[in-house]
Amino acid sequence: MNFDYFYEEQSESYAFYKIPKVLFTEEMFEGLTTDAKVLYGLLLDRVSLSKKNGWIDESGKVFVYFTIETVKRSMRCANSKACALMKELVDFGLIERRKRGLGKPAVIYVKDFARFQISELQASEYRNYGDVEIGSLDVRKSEPINTERINTDINETHSILSGEEEERRAYSDYFTEQLGLEYLHQDNPYDGEMIDEILGLIVDTVCSGKEKIRIAGDYKPVNVVKGQFMKLTREHVQFVIDGIKENTTQVRCMKQYLLAALYNAPLTISNYYQALVNHDMATGKI
């Protein structure tokens, strides 16, 4: 391959992943493989997106969604390597993975590489990580590290070319788990294309740069539509799929039909099933 040179006007025209330089320069991070450091940089990139979208728990900690499939795609590696890299970061203490129960996607807490948390018991003892001074402890047996250099290195980062597609991938990962796409495909083996189209439409909508989105003839603020779509679950999507199959009228614009169905699913699903129960009771079916 024959790549072109960078010219002055092009030198700052790209988006990048940022990997903290201290991961490569400080002894305490020597135990991490280069691939694990790169993966940590990808996870750091998701933190800003999570903050933007309000993915913050009740204690104020930001979490991200980053599945093994995303690791495989981003790092161009096999499943075993992806799992090993995630485990390496967990074991090192740079990330924490928490499951949230059946039907809910696991979340990852990315730890701050520049801050160390120690308990009150540990604070009474000297814990010497190489030449790093921890908290207010006085590490007398080793020469203190140049903190000015660390602060500079934190801001000076290695970068890897990225694109605007990263935001779409984050939402795609979130909804893939949130909506239980694997189970939807299993329950609807002949509707795989429809399910994938629904996922794509949801991602397109929440990533839209428009101020308003047309839903059933009305223009609604994009944040309102996005908030409604973030409530969607596997049951809501199945409800929409069943509605499409039962529909006997001509649909002129399938995109608008799906947008309206998805937007209204969280609002109408309970009433719909209650009406079915009432009908079955009235006709003696139950």
Walk me through this protein's architecture.
The protein is mainly α and 286 residues long. 50% of the residues lie in helices and 10% in strands. It has 2 domains: 149 residues, Winged helix-like DNA-binding domain superfamily/Winged helix DNA-binding domain (Arc Repressor Mutant, subunit A), CATH 1.10.10.10; 104 residues, no CATH class. The protein is built from 12 helices and 6 strands. Strand 2 and strand 3 form a beta hairpin. Helix 3 crosses helix 4.
| Main sheet overview | 2 strands, antiparallel
The portion of residues assigned to helices is 40-55%
**Total domain modules:** 2
In CATH, what is the homologous superfamily of the largest domain? Winged helix-like DNA-binding domain superfamily/Winged helix DNA-binding domain
Q: Low-confidence parts lasting 5 or more residues at pLDDT below 50?
A: 117-163
Which strand order does the major sheet show?
A: 1-4
Could you tell me the number of beta strands?
Answer: 6
Number of helices: 12
CATH T-level fold name of the largest domain: Arc Repressor Mutant, subunit A
Question: How would you classify the helix and strand content by structural class?
Answer: mainly alpha
Shape, per Cα inertia axes: elongated
Attribute tags:
two-stranded antiparallel ribbon; 10% strand; Arc Repressor Mutant, subunit A
Give a quick rundown of the structure:
By secondary structure, the protein is mainly α. It folds into two domains: 149 residues, Arc Repressor Mutant, subunit A; 104 residues, no CATH class. 50% of the residues lie in helices and 10% in strands.
